[in-house]
Design a protein that fits this description.
Lyase 2-enoyl-coa Hydratase, Chain  A, domain 2, 2 domains, 4-stranded mixed beta sheet, 10 strands, alpha/beta, 2-enoyl-CoA Hydratase, Chain A, domain 1
């Protein structure tokens, strides 16, 4: 795959996607989004991949927002199209059967924060900083920030971040539930890959069903969501992995999943 702004590596069933524009603090561009769209589709299609880690090159930034120089002279129509492109990519990540883990180093601002929130799990280095500073340049979040942030941290905290444009550090991000854990910069990628490997070792079908149950269920009321869970639960009993998993448990051995 021909990539100029991203790096893609696959090892031991884990894909690592690195936004590789460190000289620009990995600022998001339309070209970066085009490449990310192709990479997400490839990860979802490639059966060998069981989980993915997304990070940013260098020590300063995960993604320090969008490239304002490229956005400044956009028309209203162009801005809307850019936002819809990002929404489509982030929705594809959420719909993917593969869990996405954000390994957030340094600044995750604007589109960077929004990309991290579109991932299923977020691990932050202790120097990470999160924010939706769009209000400071006369706009609002356009890549899902006004919707995913309140779903993660609650309406009040989200509005405070969005209306002030102020950043929160890694410790505060953990306290309010924006990230799952905080580790040192040196440990960040190792911890993300360790978690990805742990997920990759599970049965692919069960992993897919678990993610579907949570992601899709959150968009339903509780009654419908529980009924949906029951349907997926019943379906899981029609798989070879269920038979193997339960047999292995009763026989006190490690399961050998066949992913079907």
């Amino acid at each position: 795959m021909d990539l100029k702004n991203l790096l893609l590596e696959v090892s031991d069933h884990v894909a690592t996607v690195t936004v590789n524009r460190p000289s620009a603090m990995n600022a998001m561009t339309p070209d970066t989004l085009e490449e990310l769209e192709r990479v997400v589709a490839e990860i979802d299609r490639y059966e060998e991949v069981r989980a993915a880690v997304i990070t940013g090159a260098g020590a300063k930034a995960f993604i320090a927002g969008a490239d304002i120089g490229l956005m400044r002279d956009m028309s209203s129509t162009q801005a809307r199209e850019l936002a819809l492109k990002a929404h489509g990519i982030f929705a594809a990540m959420e719909r993917s059967s593969k869990p996405f883990i954000a390994a957030v180093n340094g600044y995750a601002l604007g589109g960077g924060c929004e990309l991290a929130m579109a991932c299923d799990i977020r691990i932050a280095s202790d120097n990470a900083r999160f924010g939706q500073p769009e209000i400071n340049i006369g706009i609002l979040p356009g890549f899902g920030g006004s919707q995913r942030l309140p779903r993660l941290v609650g309406k009040g905290r989200a509005l405070e971040m969005i209306l002030t444009g102020e950043m929160v550090d890694a410790a505060e991000a953990f306290r309010i539930g924006l990230v799952n854990r905080v580790v040192s910069q040196q440990e960040l990628l190792g911890e993300a890959h360790k978690l990805a490997a742990k997920i990759a070792a599970k049965g692919r079908v069960a992993t897919k069903l678990c993610k579907e149950a949570v992601v899709n269920g959150l968009e339903m009321d509780l009654v419908r969501a529980c009924a949906y869970e029951a349907e997926l639960f019943g379906y899981s009993f029609a798989t070879a992995d269920q038979k193997e998993g339960m047999s292995a448990f009763l026989e006190k051995r490690a399961p050998v999943f066949q992913d079907r």
